[in-house]
Amino acid sequence: MKVDNIIIGSGISGLTAAAILARLGRSVAVIERNRRVGGSLRRFKRNGVAFDTGFHYTGCLGKDDILYRLWDYLGLLQYLDIQRFPDYSHENISFFDSSLEIPLYFSYKRSEEELSSLFPQDTEKIREYFRTVREVAATIPFYNFDVSLNEFFRDYWKPSQVPVKGILSGISDNRLVLALLIHLFLYGVPASQASLGTHAMVAHAYLNGAYHIVGGGQAVIDSYLKILRRAGVEIFTSMDIERIDIKDGAVHAVCADGEFFRTENVIYTGHPSRLFDLLPESFFRPAYVRRLRGLINTPSMFVAFCSLNAEMDDYGKSPWINYYALFSDEDMNSSRHRQLDRLPVMLTAPSVRDGTGKQGAVLLRESSMEEVLAFDQHGEEGKRAAGYEAWKRREGIALCNKANMHWFGSDEALELLETSSPLTFRDELGAPEGTVYGAMHSINQLTPSHMTRLRGLYLSGQSILMTGIVGASLSSLVTVGEIVGKESLWERITGS
Ligand SMILES: Cc1cc2nc3c(=O)[nH]c(=O)nc-3n(C[C@H](O)[C@H](O)[C@H](O)COP(=O)(O)OP(=O)(O)OC[C@H]3O[C@@H](n4cnc5c(N)ncnc54)[C@H](O)[C@@H]3O)c2cc1C
Predict the structure, then answer these.
(1) CATH 3.30.420.270 fits 5-83+214-295+442-494, yes or no
(2) Quick check: CB of 39 below 6 Å from ligand 1?
(3) Of 105, 222, 339, 351, which one has the fewest beta carbons inside 10 Å?
């Protein structure tokens, strides 16, 4: 089969790359190894309750924001019901060992006011923090369309040496530090390794407003499928590319059954370290191979999907607030090897925001392969040793009990329906070590570029550029821009 562009992977990044190319009249095929399209965006149901895998909320969907502009350009908005979180909504930071609750609003002004009234002794530092995040965000083209994309990217793949910790030193209360760093949970980097640039990129998106999409990630997938099918894009599921050959100036993506696609460009959106499953290492410089293979990943997670036995309101809780619980002496500098019973927990209820259907909530805490290694049968995908289901259930119930007592003051508000572990993420998403946000975007390692030394082979996805729905979408904008002309594509999308 001959097609101009092959996209490997159908997460938000693959769907976005396919949609931009199709919008520009290029022929495209998407190849997904899973039987379902959508990667981390997929929604599923248990006992009639809808749950999202990897999409609980997002920033950048205000009318002047980049994701909104991109989706407008692609013709997706007509299919999506986007809801801005109401003014009272916020990240609610609470503590297992202190009665204080700290609200971090989806608004610079309100956050600064509330935090200053809770921590008057640190008012100057609070002001400095928000001013700095705003100033850094203003240098990022995705937030300030006047900034040149090319100039920004000249430096982007060099490691940023400015640690975010710097602007927080001198704060007198660790609980305030934890609240200001809560966005670390959304990109999975410990404070000691987080750069100011990356932190500002994530924090600014939410300090400018948070958004829900009715129907969650599945609604996003479905709307992408509508425009892709209309544009004639072929989508192949349950299909594994066995290898990529470069022959006679053309790229061949060869499937396990011997069928192959002859194409000009391949955009690979899986984890960069898995690229060498598809191409011989000898195609690349040894240093490049070592770098991609050695990428340090963000942690994995253990997730408990629960039903709620009453409306959230009945418990004085709102689905428009994300609840976090931590220990007040938590050290955000280290992310791994913490005691399991001291790990921070997040509670969020995206599908309740839809206003229809049964009530359910999701509990998330960090996890790692070490926790599940005993159940991994010879590394074989999908195969689990005896005792795995019982272990998952025990861990899930323990997490539910903890959340029930901390947030609901009742031992039966949340009831466990389903869990996912690092093995689930590893096998369902092809994510090494079950990493949830891909390779770390940190001061300690270079972010892999979207370009490779092979003509016609590009990378995209959450490990390239930035993580999250916004980051993975923008990564495809940049990658496709390389193929079709970055500045002109940028102009079409932003009008600048
Ligand atoms: C538990 C969790 C909660 C999250 N919450 C949020 C949130 O609230 N807001 C937010 O913005 N982000 C959130 N994220 C992050 C966000 O979901 C991801 O950053 C983003 O969806 C990644 O998109 P992607 O396209 O890069 O990768 P993926 O969604 O992982 O898609 C990659 C796809 O490529 C396929 N693939 C890989 N290799 C191959 C191959 N060789 N051949 C064929 N197919 C292949 C995979 O099967 C997969 O379908 C969350 C993530 C998780 C896991």
Answers:
(1) no
(2) yes
(3) 339
